[in-house]
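Bit of a strange request maybe. I'm writing a small parser for C-alpha cell strings and I need a real example to test against, not something I typed by hand. Could someone generate the C-alpha cells for this chain?
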Amino acid sequence: MQYNTARELMPIREYGRGVHDMVKYLLTIEDKETRQKNAEAIIEVMAILSPQLKNIEDYQHKLWDHLYLISDYKLEVDCPYPVPTREVKQQKPAPLPYPKQKLNGTTWVSDLKNYTSRLSKKQTRKKSKGIFRYWLAL
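Reply from user aminoacidic:
Good idea to test on real output. This should exercise your parser:
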C-alpha cells in the first residue's frame, strides 16, 4: 500500500492524481501525433473535472497552461495558445505603491476628525458638540 504522503507532490491538486499520471504517461509517448491527440483528450478530461473554469472567458487557454504546469513545462505538443514558460510563471508582481501621507492614530481617529470638520461647517457649534459627545459615547 502506498500512502499519499509518500507520493510525489502534485502541482495542481484540483485535477487529482489520475490526471497527473496521464500527463506523466503523455511525456513518455514518442509519436508526436499520438501525443497531440492524448493531450487534447487530457484537456477535455480537465474541463470535465473542473466545470467552474467554463465561466471564465478564455478557459481553454487556462487549461492548456495548467497542462504545461503539470508537465513541469517539458511537454512538446502543438498548443493553440502561446506556450507558457517557467520564467513568466515565476515572475513576482510589481510592488504596490503605498500612500505617502502620515497616518495619525487609528482609522476611527481620522474618521472622527473628518466628521467633526464637516459638522462644524454644516451646523452650529452647540449642535456639533452634542453630536460629538454622542459619537464618543458609542
